[in-house]
Automatic annotation (TrEMBL), chain A:
<protein>
    <submittedName>
        <fullName>4Fe-4S dicluster domain-containing protein</fullName>
    </submittedName>
</protein>
<keyword id="KW-0408">Iron</keyword>
<dbReference type="InterPro" id="IPR050954">
    <property type="entry name" value="ET_IronSulfur_Cluster-Binding"/>
</dbReference>
<keyword id="KW-0004">4Fe-4S</keyword>
<dbReference type="InterPro" id="IPR017900">
    <property type="entry name" value="4Fe4S_Fe_S_CS"/>
</dbReference>
<keyword id="KW-0411">Iron-sulfur</keyword>
<dbReference type="Pfam" id="PF13247">
    <property type="entry name" value="Fer4_11"/>
</dbReference>
<keyword id="KW-0479">Metal-binding</keyword>
<dbReference type="InterPro" id="IPR017896">
    <property type="entry name" value="4Fe4S_Fe-S-bd"/>
</dbReference>
TrEMBL record, chain B:
<dbReference type="InterPro" id="IPR036280">
    <property type="entry name" value="Multihaem_cyt_sf"/>
</dbReference>
<protein>
    <submittedName>
        <fullName>Cytochrome c3 family protein</fullName>
    </submittedName>
</protein>
Amino acid sequence: MSNNNKKWFSLNLGRKEKESSGACGCGKTSGGCGAASQSDQMTDAAFAEAAIHASIGEEKNKDGFEQVFDVKMDRRTAFKKLTASLLIGAGAVSTSCSVIGGDESKEKAQIDWEEQFKGNYKLMTDEEKNGTVDRLVRSYQLRTGKTISMSSKNAEEDVLFGYAFNISKCQGYMDCVNACVEENNQDRNSEMQYIRIHEMKDGKGFNFNEADDNYYHEVPAEGHFYMGTQCFHCDNPPCVEVCPVQATWREDDGLVVVDYDWCVGCRYCMAACPYDGRRFNWSKPEVPEAEINKNQHYLGNRMRKKGVMEKCTFCVQRSRAGKNPACVEACPTGARIFGNLLDPDSTIRWVLENKKVFRLKEDLGTEPKFWYFMD
Amino acid sequence: MMNRYNLKYIVSAFIMVLGLASCKHHEDEYHSITDKIEAEGKNYQGTSISSEAYIGDIKTIEITEGAHTFLIPERKSQIKSYACTECHIKPLAKMQNKDFKKAHWDIKIEHANENTMNCITCHNGSNMDELTSLTGKSIDFNKSYNLCNQCHTKQFQDWKGGAHGKRIGGWAPPRASMTCVNCHNPHDPHFESRWPARFNTQKVKERE
Ligand code: SF4
Ligand code: SF4
């Protein structure tokens, strides 16, 4: 069965390093327990009972739900909530116990199972973070035969990310949008994009009602100016507050991130965001294999499932490694400036201290870390 | 009497506590992000993150301008026909006859107007390997920003600080920034208008 320090239940379905124990209990390490005698196999009911017990039974084995609510749940509610998961889990068990299933499909099932019952990334220890990242990498390898690299790098101390956007420089080329789509493995069909560039009429100020964020003509157009919006990584983010399952939160370096595997897709956060910073994916992001960015981060551009919330992460996979976000790098006009707000010698700090900067809807107290300025 | 005093004391203490508490957004200790940046940045010791690796093969030189020290790309090795004296063996005045091969026919000057600028506003006719300031002082090709900043003083200020121009590599130290001529063609410095990089066809459908 699971290690005692694990926060969620895991079955050892044919894992070689562990001896016979756990639900599959056939004692065989490969070849499927179908070969074992009938009495050694668990019935479906017994399996369900074991799974529920393991997931919610003992308080010391806090599972994902309890991590969040931190209350005792009665078995009936827990059972309801677990039904969907159990279906998948049962699938995993039947695969692992079938005679035909090879070692690989068993490993796949094992990974699926552990992924299904893992906890919230926000509450994981570093070891657990590595664990889930390793599983995701392995699972991708098993499914596609390709290797990706995925990071679970935490926020660095003494770093607080901030962004500045020069309205007088932006020419509306949208190179940033292109770079963002490619960097973050965004779905190609639905053309969901984290960044919007708004074309606004000179003399009308910031008027989003009359602005056009999907222009297609030579730019810059006479009598217009351009400005970009995306998630502003508010320091006091209202989107985080409303999430019923705490699937989105503010990291210590100021990035507001989403655990795609914990998000239930309720879209509360989207409604709570005053800046149109969040994007809901109505379909599983699909990217041609050759175009997939294989340099990934768990909280960033990894391949997500359908029906979860996505958004700009300031390219966490890049920024935590010391690179600029893809949009900053792609902008040919230098309108985008990124850096560490806590470093008094950083360029972003110079901009904040020496240019006339402002933010959108400052009076809301959301404290976005995204400033606009002019030459 | 004693009781009243006590009550007053308690009430005023209570109000003070309230006042203190109301200054805080949630558990946060700061009024605003600017306060927070200032306070938390005070004892900034640097981080282990470095952008050095991302500068890549670009050859850089370190410059110090005012309070700012940073890297810019080395220029001379990037100019195809440098050193200029490989062709310009004689001063410009003596080369203006038919005996010499025509050169630089592709250069068109679209920089200020003819009253203000021509070739020798920046190029030194008697020493082509160096640039020249408005007062005739020589300026190294590697530090050509000193030529630009004679007129574009505001842009120069912003560039030094980091508000104008682009970083090379990443946000972390060491800072490497593009210099003027890495983005602007000095003979034709403005940005061309062009079509946006993409058009979102789905958005059009959604909004029908
Ligand atoms: S811009 Fe919107 S999504 Fe981003 S942190 Fe602020 S409230 Fe949340
Ligand atoms: S959509 Fe996901 S991240 Fe947003 S509030 Fe719902 S569960 Fe939380």
